Amino acid sequence: MPYLMKKGLLYDMEDAFDILMDFNVIFLGEEHGSRMSHEAEFLTLKGLSKRDSKLVLALEMFERDVQETLDAYLEGGISEKTFLKLSRPWPNYKKDYRPLIELAKKKKIPVIAANIPRRAAAAVSMANKISPGAMGEDRVYLPKAVYLKSKEYYRRFASSMDEMPHFVPMKGMEVDGLYKAQVLKDAVMASSLEPFLDRRVLFCCGHFHSDYHLGIPYQLKKSHPKLRIAVIAMASSVDPLPMKDRSRVADFIWVEE
Fold this sequence. Notes:
By secondary structure, this protein is an alpha/beta fold. It is 46% helix and 18% strand. The protein has a single domain, classed as Rossmann fold (3-Layer(aba) Sandwich).
């Protein structure tokens, strides 16, 4: 049975969803290969949508330039086959993200294709510069402000690069360029919410994009300091940490007993 933990207190899911209704934007930081993460996303979308008929879902897993395709599928204008052909879904879409999309389609929940096209992130990484010139046609997604100066985020990002296996392609690349690409992703994903900030948003993303209220929450809070933001992390991603440090990672920890 799943629970949300906050500072050592366990809340069953009905109470937890009621508590989450106090927040404007709720980030659920997944571990991409974790079955528990994807079950948590589905249950949270289901639970919040029962309480809020105007809920919006945002996904890291789709990129800004496929928004029209995603909208067309949700509205019944194109087939699932056409949608999948045009939207560049992640390889694990059918098992892990299709349930979210189908629930959103059934309940008429808007879905934001939040991420920057990967070609733009790659170009910024190679150029070691966030600029319209580096981003080419994807410059249309560049936010007015991109906040690069979080020393903690840079330190955590650089550390994560050091821990990568030597055979990973990014391993030999310049950390500063990779960091700029990472922050660009965060800033674009934050800016993708702008038309929906008068509604409640559930944002599903990789946990590094939301842990410690860095990444996307950091970019969002810089532009909208009054927003009430909640971050949920999976127990498996915080298990290695001492108990006193876990509450720094996220406001809530998803646990199963």
